[in-house]
Amino acid sequence: MGLILLIVFYLLFPALVIYLCYRFPVINKVGAVIICYLVGMLVGNFFTFSPEIAKMQNTLTSAAVALALPLLLFSMDVKAWFHLAGKATLCMLLATIAILVVAFGGFMLIRGDTPYAWQLGGMAVGLYTGGTPNLAAIKTALDVSSNVYITMHTYDTVISLIYILFLVSVGQRFFQLYLPKFEKKSEVYAAEEQAEMEAIDSYKGILSRKTLVPLLGALGLSIVILAVAVGISELVPKEHSEAVSILAVTTLGIACSFIPKIRQIKKTFQSGMYLIYIFCLAVGSMANLKELFTKFNWPIMGFVIFCIFGSLLLHSLLCRIFKIDADTMIIVSTSAICSPPFVPVVANALKNPQIILSGLYTGIIGYAIGNYLGIAFSYLLKSSF
Description:
Blueprint lengths: L2 H21 L1 H6 L1 H15 L4 H24 L3 H7 L1 H25 L6 H11 L4 H11 L3 H30 L11 H13 L9 H25 L4 H20 L2 H4 L4 H17 L4 H6 L3 H24 L4 H13 L4 H7 L6 H29 L1
């Protein structure tokens, strides 16, 4: 496959996936991230890529993540989140504590079996406080090999599906055995959360002049942020430059979200997710599919299972201590473990739209803190053990 043709495929195929998700509910349930990831793997294993293409893939994946992070963070309204989701704030803090404790335990269990256990620990903390953008960013920051990344992402996809099925089937009844029931709010909050649910993955109107022009300005600002971050990273030793660059991008993206004119630009979150879809497609095409499915990596698979279900259990026990209701615990756990796009799905299954806004905001906050926590956690494990 030619270089130009492959670049066009990477840039445009996610648009087709988004259209298919709109058109067919079954495809929408699978999700754009998983589809891009799987299609990328199929393309990468049906075609042989030259060294020139491999270099382009590395550049594209790094650029996509670095540009996506500010766009995802521009729409974050920190002040509104603290006003609207006080109890969810505490619940998110407990979820963060839970994954830090469990990821450390998982690291201790597998550190003798694999030399990259410290990287897995950091990726788990970033992934299970934020989501795929954080996992992608930490992969870049820690120079994690594509095969390790793909293996962890694959197992995470499968185990997360089991996790979601548990939450939407018996999870609510199970956690209500020892957590309080949710207390309903006013109709005003319900209307706000319904609007958020409809907007979180909507690309409708993104190409209209009214939306596109400011959005191009936001993309230009992301490029400036990336340039500044790269400049800052040049001031530190080379082995830490990628980590510093990602943290600088994250910090500057959050700082810009405090500026109302930037925060109010429409579709920045969706544009950031589009770049993440490009990342998933490109990274998927870099994986060795034959090796992945013929050689199970038991340490990584066991680590992922331990992190997801271990943190869920510990999170729920901490919520019992602080008397947080079952629905809030479930939706915050969903936003932490699986990221904001899954929040409406779980809220709908729980028949409680009033928890959507809390789930979305905690998920976006997770995007913001995941890189800091994941990178710091990895270096702490590497230097201490």
